[in-house]
Amino acid sequence: MGRMPVRTVTAMIYIKQMSGGRTKPLLLACGDSQGSQEFIVKLTSRVDMGLKSLVAEFVAAGIARQAGLMTPETVLVEVLPDFVGTVTIPEDRVELQKSQGLNFGSLNLTPGYTTWLRNQALPSELRTLALQVFVFDALIENPDRRPEKPNLLGKADDLAVIDHELALGFDMALSRKDDPSKWYDFLKDHIFFSDARKRKTDVRQIAMDFIGSIDVESVIAELPTGWSLAAKDRLDKIRDHFKMVQGRATDVCDGLMRVLE
Ligand SMILES: Nc1ncnc2c1ncn2[C@@H]1O[C@H](COP(=O)(O)OP(=O)(O)O)[C@@H](O)[C@H]1O
Ligand SMILES: [Mg+2]
Hints:
Elements: E1 7-17, E2 26-32, E3 35-42, H1 51-66, E4 74-79, H2 81-84, H3 90-98, E5 101-107, E6 114-115, H4 127-139, E7 152-155, E8 158-161, H5 193-197, H6 200-213, H7 216-220, H8 225-230, H9 232-247, H10 249-259
Parallel strand pairs: 1-4
Antiparallel strand pairs: 1-2, 2-3, 3-5, 4-5, 6-7, 7-8
Helix pairs in contact: 4-6, 6-10
Magnesium ion binds next to loops.
């Protein structure tokens, strides 16, 4: 199956700042030769680790697609001086000024999907997808999909994963690396932890399937050169991580089973 290359779109109209988001992403209408669409845009200047954070967003979204999970289309959003000049909210204009060049955008999936709420009940039709999201977060080491911060979009028969800037932070070196029994402790806070606990066996099979479908190099190949250079450390650690995961799939499954005990 051929994948569409990542599009670069140009920021054209400021709509609003998204409420609730920690990194205050912007909803912008952006255009390319195919017309104009709305995107949620994370600015380089507003994420904790600049391009490293945006690389995590980009690579995690690519891996989600390889695993067959829904995630909004990723685009690169070019912010140009002419656009910055049209923005009247001072706070956002200043950040856009600092973020000229390429930023991370995701296609606005609302109103088809809605933001998952903190106490939203999981209907039985979404249980398998929820388990897949749980395993995906294990493999990308994403600590940021918790009941108080679901970072999911949902509709009747689908879940879409968003907000991965805190995932893939292997350059932030945590000691749990050495001890497989501690690899997945962070998942105890996951929004679907208790659900996954009820269906351990399936988790193992999902993990094996995902591990076989991930090709991180082909995602990295789509990054803009400037991002690859700026985040070289992080990318090298991401490559090492997936080599380890693919070489030690049984340890990964055992680690998952252990955290769900
Ligand atoms: N592609 C998208 N489509 C629709 N809504 C989105 C999309 N991306 C983000 N959002 C909404 O914006 C909010 C903030 O985005 P998020 O990526 O979680 O940023 P933050 O890192 O600041 O939490 C989300 O909780 C969600 O409600
Ligand atoms: Mg969020």
